[in-house]
Amino acid sequence: LDTNSEVKFDTKTSTLSATCRGLQVALRSDTGAAELLLSKLAGGKMGAAGRVALPAATVDGRNLVNMEVAEPGKPAAGLIWAGGVVVKLEILSESAVAITWEASDGGDHDFVVKLQDNHTMYGGGERFNRLNQAGNTLPMKSHDELGNKPDRSYKPVPFVMSTLGYGIWMDSFAQGEFDLGHTSPGLVTLRYTERQLRLVLVGGASLQAVLSEYTRLSGRPRLPPPWVLAPWKGRDVHKSREEVLADVEKTRSHGLPASVLLIDSPWQTGYNDLTLNEEQFQE
Predict the structure, then answer these.
(1) pLDDT tens string 9-19
(2) How would you classify residue 207: left for phi > 0, otherwise alpha for psi between -120 and 50, otherwise beta?
(3) For the residues of 29-73, what is the DSSP string, one character each?
(4) Looking at the DSSP assignment, which residues form a beta bridge with residue 7?
(5) Cα distance between residue 42 and residue 63, in whole Å
(6) What tens digit of pLDDT does each residue of 220-262 get?
């Protein structure tokens, strides 16, 4: 990390802050409000690339305000709220800071985190609606259904990028939702039920840099074996055993390179019931 990276508490302004080269997160202990300041990672002034206001987070409908320093002299220990929630800031890299809310009772609670941003939003995993997700609510849970899927997905990813120049990653396996200005235009609202919530804000000189840092932090996949990258052959529906064999025979007769013959989900007796339709595929 850069030598200027640090977490500190300013007693004059009652502000807990985490600063790295790419961004700064400043959290007021009295009002609970926070601010994200973006730099251009090239010696630029903090906030020169943009500012994002975060109203006070809520837990079970109550605002996290009037917090106290958890351990005097140890800013990394965070702030503690009378309702039993500890809030910490952590610098993950020169362009990423995490905010963590953790309930001390060990139980699950309803967390709501908001960011004021009316820019274009990309990401959220595989979706079937449009590229710009601003104005949509994205359920962060795996869901498959027959026909049109719009905002739903069976490959959700709790990460979106704003064209202001930063990324929002909810580091959680829990089900939740990203309301990207659907309920309140210009307001990103993240809703999760968890014992601990960890929000990572990622900056960068470009959206490509933001995405690269996110994948570095979350973990990149290994290079798959060669057969995965070779040509696949499939149909929307194979109506019979004969159609499956016909695909194999035609591929071979034309000398086409091939690796996988994909028999898609209509091989079942019902949608996603995982039971082979023996009338469709007879011996």
Answers:
(1) 999 999 999 99
(2) alpha
(3) TTT--EEEEE--SSSPPTTTTEEEEEPPPEETTEE--S-EESSTT
(4) 18
(5) 36
(6) 989 999 999 999 999 989 999 999 999 999 999 999 999 999 9
